[in-house]
Amino acid sequence: MGNTLVVAEKEFKDLLSDRILLVIVSAFLLYILVDLNNIRNLLDAGFFLKDPSVTQNNPAANLAQTMLNQITFMLSRYGAILGIAVGFLSIAGERHGGALNALAVKPLRRETIIVGKTVGALGFLVCVFTLASAFITSGLLILAANTIAPVIGEFLARVPAAILTALLYTAVFFFLSMLISLLIDNYAFALILSLLAWSVSGLLATYAFAGYIATFLGDEKGLGSLIVSLSPDGMIKNISYNALTNFNLDLWGCLDRMGPETFKLAAIVIVLLVLSFVAFQRRDIA
């Protein structure tokens, strides 16, 4: 356990000081500022009082719905880019630079290395997500404390669920990027494949694209819905729209409705985690 924590600490510090990741995190926080400015403009325009596309019947719930959607999708989609970068740098970047091989020749078991690197990387992602969520929530309270006040308790209670959902989604692409980096020696090609997988997941969550595939396979209706439901992005959409932002449900009803989709995301994460561990044990990482 001691060696695992040492590897995890080293991984966390390396990621924290990596310039590429710092640029990605800075761009992420800048995007949040832009989004908060858009929310302020919508507030000034009375959007949450009259918008016909939202389903709640009061401005507080309308605003809370929008912000929970924003938290979930911003942390998920842009967090996935961060997760891919972290998974790629943890394996392919260190393989290319020789650091991973140097670790492997030390008196450390391979499972100690991969567990430590995973713990350190996930710890880094949790810190970034917590910071981003605090940034969004603080900005919301500064801009619209009076508007959201009637549902603030319910909103804050659902924020951790939104963060956990986004972390599961990000973990899918973190472990996928790690697995691809272990299986493919060309580190540039590994990065391209990881980003391509993320892009395809987003496309599969759209009924138009899924419908094209279903039509090509001869079953437009049932198969199209199945394709969407099996995409990580489709799971995120179902969680957000059908549970997290539904203020007609209480918190326990919300968590109960989140269960099936969350379980599917977690199952994908576990499968990719196991495959990554097996690949790390058996592959030449020199």
Can you describe what's shown?
By secondary structure, this protein is mainly α. The protein has one domain. The chain is built from twelve helices and no strands. The protein has helices at 2-17, 19-44, 47-50, 59-97, 99-104, 110-148, 152-183, 187-204, 207-217, 220-230, 232-244, 251-282. The longest helix is centred in the first third of the chain and has 39 residues, at 59-97. It is globular and about 60 Å long. Mean pLDDT is 79; it is low at 51-56.
Per DSSP, what share of the residues sits in E-state strands of 2 or more residues?
under 5%
Q: What is the H/E string?
A: HHHHHHHHHHHH
Report the span from N to C terminus: 25 Å
The low-pLDDT segments are 51-56
Shape: globular
Q: Rg to the nearest angstrom?
A: 20 Å
**How many helical stretches?**
12
Largest sheet: none
Number of DSSP-assigned strands:
0
Q: How much is the average pLDDT?
A: 79
Q: Structural class given helices, strands, pairing?
A: mainly alpha
Q: How helical, in percent, are the residues?
A: over 70%
Number of domains: 1
